[in-house]
Amino acid sequence: MAVKLFNLLALTSLAIAACSFGAAPANALNTRHHDIGRRHVAHDGIAKKRSQTQRCKQRPSSSAAPAPSSTKAPAPTSSAIKVVASSSAAPPPPPSSSAAPAPSPSSAPSSGGGKVGVAWANGDSPDLANFKTDKTSLLYTWSAYKPSNADQLGFSFMPMLWGQSQIDQFEQMVTPGYGSIILGFNEPDQSGQSNLDPETAASLWMQHIEPKRSMGYTLGAPAVSSADAGRTWYQNFLNACNGQCTIDHCVIHWYGTDPQQFISYVSGWQSQFNCPDILITEYADENFVNMNDQASASDISTFYSTVNKWMDETDYVKAYFAFGIMTNMQGVNQLDSLMGSDGQPTSLGWQYINDSW
């Protein structure tokens, strides 16, 4: 009897041990991203790309932008609009208590050059210097946190109010002279991202983003996904603003594999919403509809060559930010990566930051 009891206990222990080595949950794919978050990046901003299958139904140096003055400046008037709704359908660590120095002013990006942006998810890393050229000027981090070497390198920083839980950090960090353009909420139409209804977003905008314009900032609209619901959410946001939200820049995300569809999507956004100008703050050659049918390196090079040349030549496109200056691509085609494991640009990355196609 004692032997049988011993065998039963042994089998039970073995079963418990086996269960502990079961399949890892999907969130384990984002483990490294938590490390990125500890390095001062709004971790949720670039998480869960692979799960956002609806987002693609549309397929379905020296030229830094000017920073606002450290003193209170009058609100810009030349290209900004107070949004009037159309009738047509349409988390980082606590910030430092000391304010960062204002970046040195220099010329703004011009048509055909200087539009290449850096979307940076790597915190305070010296590798940022590897991505500064005379073509790269604007920088953002999916948060209000600015890398400590950004000003010295000549980047013009774009702080983001990613979502509702980042308000305190945003208010503490975003002061006159800290950056140039404020970016609104990150994919508020998506439950896995900032997940805000249009009415709440409009209210938060008026409380926390609109007042920053009197500090000299220009304001970038909430960046919805390229899912079908994105346009509807944005139109409803404009309705909720009731003409009170100042939109200096429309902001777009797009993922797909057809460069002509990208061009059509951006052109359609401009036609529908009559944007002062457009920032494309995330885009990549990525097939979220069929994850097993991804582009080759050659196809990706052709995609970027086509769309980047078009954006350089299109006056209403102010700047663009390819998704991929990271080694862990968060579910996006690894061949889109613009950064190698050594922190240097990949071959594609070199072409991107030098605008050389």
TrEMBL record:
Domain Asl1-like glycosyl hydrolase catalytic: 117-352
Cellular component GO terms, alphabetical: fungal-type cell wall
Region of interest (Disordered), ranges: 49-119
Biased composition (Low complexity): 60-89
Signal peptide stretch: 1-17
GO-annotated biological processes: fungal-type cell wall polysaccharide metabolic process
Biased composition (Basic residues): 49-58
Biased composition (Pro residues): 90-106
Top-level taxonomic group: Eukaryota
Keywords: Signal
Methyltransferase found in the keyword field: no
Protein name per Swiss-Prot or TrEMBL: Asl1-like glycosyl hydrolase catalytic domain-containing protein
Phylogenetic lineage: Eukaryota, Fungi, Dikarya, Basidiomycota, Agaricomycotina
